[in-house]
Amino acid sequence: MTSEKFFFPCPRFALFRWSPLLIATVLFSCGLFPSVVVAQEPEGIKLSDTLSQSGSTGLSISSDLTQSSVETPGEESKFPETQDGVDKPDTAVTIDELRQQLQISPLPEINSAALYYPSSGTGIPEAFGSEWGDVFITLTGASKDRVRTTFVDSSISMGLGLGNPRNLVGMELSYNILSTRTKFAVNGSFDLKVHRYIFEDTNFVASTALGVANVYSYGPEASLNPPVAYGVVSGFTYLRPDDPIQSMPLTITLGAGGAPVFAETGVGLIAGAGVQVHPQIGLGSSWGFGGFNLGASFLPFRNIPFTLNALYTDVFNMTIPGHRLVLTLDYSYRFK
Fold first, then answer.
1. Bridge-partner residues for 210, per DSSP?
2. Taking a C-beta distance cutoff of 8 angstroms, is the pair 324, 136 a contact?
3. Alpha-carbon 134 to chain mean position
4. Buried b (16+ CB within 10 A) or exposed e, 71-86
5. pLDDT, tens digit, for every residue of 61-114?
6. pLDDT tens for residues 22-58?
7. What integer pLDDT is reported at residue 133 of this predicted model?
8. Extended beta strands in 246-290, E state
9. What CA–CA distance (Å, rounded) separates 205 from 96?
10. Is 130 helix (H, G, I), strand (E, B) or coil?
11. Cis peptide before 165 (omega within 30 of 0)
């Protein structure tokens, strides 16, 4: 006879799922489950002080931060009184006193008129030249010499400037009426000079230039005026930079040029120095055109760019033409 097994149906999975809840219910009913208490900071006790004293958190929180914004009774506030969000002044200031405090001394008058200077008076080409906005005209008269013994000759030059020698290069173009003793403008030539600043500060400027005199000539006497190339370097400084009236500008030039203008044959030396001895007078000397030269420049009016120059060439009578006196009238204008 076979025995039959009887199985009691038990919701095993459901019982296991609800077991923790049943256990907690039993323990709570017996008073064995700890009650949950929400800690509140009692009045007058700062939780930050308790934490810093217990050391259980590992952090130290300063109680000064919580006390700095609390004003204890009996202490005066350290903050200034305000009214409508604006600090009250300690003392009342009248309108006249405030006006005196805010008063500014008037600025000194500045003479905006442009002032001009005489030339260096050396009579040789310099490395400084005209730039964009500059125009000029020169009238020249020369006494007779060994070659021209019976007449006084004269010429006219006019030109303009292009470019900027500080940014890239400046270019000076000039047109010359070589002689007025014959029919007017029957003989002429063009000159070209390219120049650039190579150094500049508050008390010294240096420039270099390459030029060609008589780059193109025309007329019956064109063969007497062949192209002549030259190169020069010039420096400009002040001997009295702190003197507001007479700073004594000094110009020095050194270079070389070809014949027949700067030498009878080959290449000749170009050198010169000029200084402004008076706000309206400049003196200079140079070696050029094959001889030693002395020059002077006079500026009649400080506010008008008009100069009268005198140059005595070949003082020691070393060249074929010999010494002669050359007078020039220069007028320049800057329209930019």
1. 194, 231
2. no
3. 22
4. eeeeeeeeeeeeeeee
5. 344 434 444 444 444 444 455 555 555 555 666 777 777 777 776 665 555 567
6. 555 545 555 554 544 444 444 444 444 443 444 444 4
7. 94
8. 249-258, 267-278, 281-288
9. 52
10. coil
11. no
pLDDT of 47 = 41
127 touches 234 (CB < 8 A): yes
Whether the link from the prior residue into 260 is cis, omega within 30° of 0, is yes
Task: Name the residue among 315, 316, 287, 241 with its Cα closest to residue 122.
Answer: 287
**3-state secondary structure labels for all residues of 20-66:** HHHHHHHHHHCCCCCCCCCCCCCCCCCHHHHHHHHCCCCCCCCCHHH
Q: How many Å apart are CA 143 and CA 65, to the nearest integer?
A: 98
* Geometric angle at alpha carbon 184, from 305 and 310, rounded to 5°: 40
Task: Dig out the tokens for 153 from the structure.
Answer: 């000759």
Q: In the prediction, which pLDDT does 12 show?
A: 45
Between CA 34 and CA 24 the distance in angstroms is 11
Q: Amino acid identity, residue 211?
A: G
Structure tokens, 165: 């020698």
The contacts of residue 320 (CB under 8 Å, 6+ apart) are: 146, 147, 264
Residue 16, H or E segment: helix 12-29
Q: Give dist(CA 16, CA 303) in Å, integer.
A: 113
Pick the closest to residue 319 from 235, 263, 244 (CA basis): 263
Please calculate the CA angle 132-133-138 and round it to the nearest 5 degrees. 105
